């Protein structure tokens, strides 16, 4: 997934899985997104169910990312061993932390990933550590005010493929109530700061969106990796619409 | 649930769970439906996960029905022991089969339900077999052409609370391609036949709907228990809309 | 388990598992019961978790029975293939039904059990169909009034090892509120009727008890296979005692 | 799967899954078998894990069969709704039972399958009931002596695609110790009887084999659908070989 | 839960879940405890089953705490996202570690909790980060000798709501065999040291008790948050009593 | 396990579990290995399924090790609480890290293991912290080039029982493609370096092998703890052989 993204300059749109289980994952994988991310940070998804969700996504042919619970080598490596095409690493706040994330994604000599890619070896007979290092995407999340001061250092770390903005957390750290609809000027300036730094450092700018409308706004501004919808939210909203549509007054 | 439905004459609208797992069940339970049915016939849901889904629905305060895989006493009793407020029994084709379904729902002397209501005993300190017999809803599905000839006998069986039309199966048995949108005249006549028989026999007429629009049509016609949306379909459609809405052309 | 029970004339006391999961099963298996029964009829236990519960019981060295959801060959055979030492079959109401239960427990020529004993083959290198036929216990539950009239026929069926009284269901069918404390005269007479018929037909009399006190009463009367405690009830009562013991007044 | 098998006259070789879980299923699906059968009769596999195993097999592109626990409509329909390409139905002993199996596999007018193909609808946008009726394979197991007398009637039932010999059960019913190595003359004669009846009735002859050697024997004789290896047995044998190969003497 | 505890000065008694699964959790939640803690440190409970256990506890209306496996931000945040009302953090040994625990419990500006409260958002439509910061309880465990020297610093950290004594670990670090019955003078002195420090710093003193008797002792001494019973121990003891009570001599 | 290994000087051979689930674990436990290791680093095994796998291994009487995901106290302690006889700790690169691993394995005063051994307490009535400290095996993995420089310091840490070579990772860090067949001279020299250091420091030398052949080579050289086969690889290879053996040409 990585090489193609880096070389094509393409903008991609993703779906987000917070519901545990391989059937919902297959539904998300078949919806037409460019990629689907399984969220093991805020989604209610543990490691026991993750491999089957990645099987379900592989079945649909949609590349799968995993948002790991935290910037820890074991979490990153286990997601990749289970078949993820890349990871989104939350709360990266310094160049040192970004390096740590990158090194967990790459086999030596580029990093320190431990060898044991159980699912990839099953699914790709041409698997090699070199190819894996080329293909595994490493996205770091930029989501606190203090990180903005470290931005140039973070984006200069080789192997940081994507800087992914978490607008809700970034907002909270700026004193704004949590929202994916960025309207407060300071909040917006912070997002734009990440975007311009990405463009300067040739890193793909990514952002978590509230919905397709939000996604279009950021895409027009230059963001290239956009999460446009989350399974649990889609289900909540569409179920509520069904209730309303049926004229229920309960 | 049963007594209130029977006495109030109220029309109710339900949600349908085909996705296994208690988190999706909680989402459906919070959407505002009058009841939610966990489908263990066509949904990909086995008995191991069912009790936790019924816990999730109980948490939301929304009454839970279970569509059992088949008209078998053990399936009906186990769903009730796990906390269902009632069952929808597929493919009931004769008065004898309807009686069998009813008897599995009721303790003696009205039926043959075996005693061991593990979840109900936990959740209702006032539980009694009499109260359970009063409250457990028994819906039988009318979904084949040949059943129409048995309709009066079936609806005359004491304890058949709801006759629930499965339009897709009913259609297939009439030579119509499977659909919840009933337009073919013979198909529509069959649905109307069930409705009028229900009215005659004082049985609640129910029907499986494609969506809220469909639900409104049947409600206006007199149906009183309507399934208006299914989780897997809601997720599929809303995810597809998100993809379209984001202007993806993949 | 069967041969020893039949030949020794020993009275045995069992524990009852209604909670799903292999850890609770191990706790019950280590408590000192002569056997433990996993209840897949009224317990909230499906077939996916059953094999691991039988592993846990095997680990403790305590023989495991399974109460199957219903008198169906597949349910009986699958419990045995997963490692049960015998089955308790609910709601057996005639000699024909008893024969059906027995035949599902025994390989030809004594019965019709299908060959594929996955867990037994792993755990017993000396496994043979003859040995299995000798060792698998078949208990039929006597729990409705009408069954009392069929008792002699049922207990005459070769291979019916135990007649297991379900006092709650038996009581309900006699018009008594569901209880394991048998005090109503007609209720008691029915239980005694099963006991004497067992003694006449050389079948082991068994009974489901409310607690150890109840068990002692029935044992003194002659019952030989007694379930004396259920995991969910033990946990409920002991937790309530802990709350009271701590002087909580909530 | 069905049409191709019926029209090509091809001989196919399958793998057999008795171990629950989607990872082992993926391994079996990638081994190179023509099809893989998930055994929910003798395998320790319940309905909760089945859909994820069928996802895993779909991921490998290997057609998946399911051996259902018993000849019951709900079991057959649920396996198909979860994505199986066909079913193997155990212990079919008469034409009536064969018809029942076939009818559960086919939508009206050929049968009585209820509509709700959740997994097939997701995976095949061209799904139709007609196509499903064409493609779903129905194999009935011939595994008792008495069935041999009904063979012509059974194989004359339209829609019985495969007669699948279970040599172990067939042997037991003939008084032979359970084995997949058929050497006893009466046992062999029974197997040959099924083969010739298949050839006469234009039904695909299938058989459960002990290992590849056994498979070659039956194939040379004319069997066309052969299960050549079972996951649990492969793992047992190869692990034992590893222990021996390492020179362990434990 | 937090504000009420802090403001009321009330003493509360809790139950402890070490058995995985939502049914046991519901039983514990219904027993009458003021709160129930799901132990993911020493209980055999992973993250896949935790959300359903918190659903079960929510169903009972009993506030749920989670003892996290270790003082790591991701563990704390995931427990809260799954619906816990607070956390108990093991092995906190310094003010810096206490701060880290507190910061993981609170959104900015009080802490660094990342935004994505999936279960709380479903269950509380009035959810806000401010309210969450007010309500989420943070208990740090005091359980090593060396920690006693840091006690004043630890209890001075704003947001440390409870200092929870783990008597077994504290004992071991003092050279006493692991026990919840604190009798050794040095052991007792250490516990009293924590109590008096709590009173001085206006932190709620909590302690893990062997049983209700032990709880009463500590409560009389001034402890205000007491775990009085653990599911696995309750089940072990009550099952053993049942065996003894039945007069088994096995 | 530890004391016997250390005192006997015995060479042992192990099996490796990467497939989740207690049935495959039982198969591996019955194969005849001296021990079986459940790999929660590269295997697709989370903490929810681990306790049942350790039950299955305990049932077979084969000592169980767990390879933890990373050198973190919580991971080590939880594996031991669930019943492991010891742990294999990946990527230990310094004496400080080795000490941390050892301290997580031992109760005070030798270490900092927190008390709550749920499974061991159930299975061993003679459990004590002293006995546990004597018996729990601590193996550290040597698998990077830079670690070789720290080898003497690492192996001097009291309580490091085994130095376990991961040849694949060690090779990658030396610029060799990942392989368990060590032929490249620098790669071999590194392995030999670990062996001789072990002999010097009286630490048991262990190594991960490709297969029994590889195991014999290393054993002849002096390695004493050898993993000779992995479940997923055994299944892959034996299934592929079955396909070939059946003459499939697919």
From TrEMBL, chains A, B, C, D, E, F:
EC number: 4.1.2.20
Pfam families linked: HpcH_HpaI
GO molecular function: 2-dehydro-3-deoxyglucarate aldolase activity; metal ion binding
Keyword Lipoprotein in annotation: no
Keywords noted in UniProt: Lyase, Metal-binding
Protein name: 2,4-dihydroxyhept-2-ene-1,7-dioic acid aldolase
Family: Belongs to the HpcH/HpaI aldolase family.
Keyword Metal-binding appears in the UniProt entry: yes
One Gene Ontology cellular component annotation held by this UniProt entry: cytoplasm
PANTHER family xref list: 2-KETO-3-DEOXY-L-RHAMNONATE ALDOLASE (PTHR30502), PHOSPHOENOLPYRUVATE CARBOXYLASE FAMILY PROTEIN (PTHR30502:SF0)
Species of provenance: Saccharopolyspora erythraea (strain ATCC 11635 / DSM 40517 / JCM 4748 / NBRC 13426 / NCIMB 8594 / NRRL 2338)
HpcH/HpaI aldolase/citrate lyase domain span: 20-234
